[in-house]
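## Example pair
The file below holds two records. Each record gives the amino-acid sequence first, followed by its structure token line.
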Amino acid sequence: MTLVQIAQQMKMEAHDKGNAEEKGNLDRDDTSKVMIGGIAKREERANGIEVVKTSNPNVWIAKSQSRPGVEHEVNLELGTCSCEDFTKRQKPCKHLIKVRIVVKAG
């Protein structure tokens, strides 16, 4: 999946969820270029993240790259992650992006 496809999917998900802030950012051409750049950086950082599916198909565990033993819960249904980055920014983090890539790859 290309970065543009991921950005388009995120735009559709933002519209589906009715998240006004996310929609506003993704609907503007000037901002979407920045968003794609941000996604590219997070996708690059996501490469080494190990993710594990739980018994709930919508919930995954992503292991921290920087803090051994720390795990983050990624919920695909809600589009959330328990990491500090997601909690602070309320935008897709590298853990959420990694899980989406793994799920799409099948």
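Second record, same layout:
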Amino acid sequence: MAESHDVRAAVQRVLAESRAEMNQLQETIVALREQMERMAFEKQEAVQAAVVQSSDEIGQLRKTVEALRDRLEQERVTHAEELQKIRQAAREENRILEQMIVALREALERPHG
């Protein structure tokens, strides 16, 4: 009977150790699962943050491009206006010079009286 009791005790001890190991393994599985879920959540947050940051950068770049286009258009208009003024001044100067030439010719062609 003592032998039977020893066998039972050994079986009980092995069962208890097995249960403890199973519990430990289940706890490890739960902890790993939670860690994986945390990592997946953190990864998702990082991706969302990167998307938001990229969207902000794209928005800023679009505003910069728009501002540069506006400035370029203003410069083009200003240049065209200045060019128009220069052409008008040149035409006016040519007109005055032509009048002076005509007056000088007339003066030279007039007999000195």
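Notes on the second record: The mean pLDDT is 94. The chain has one domain: 1-113.
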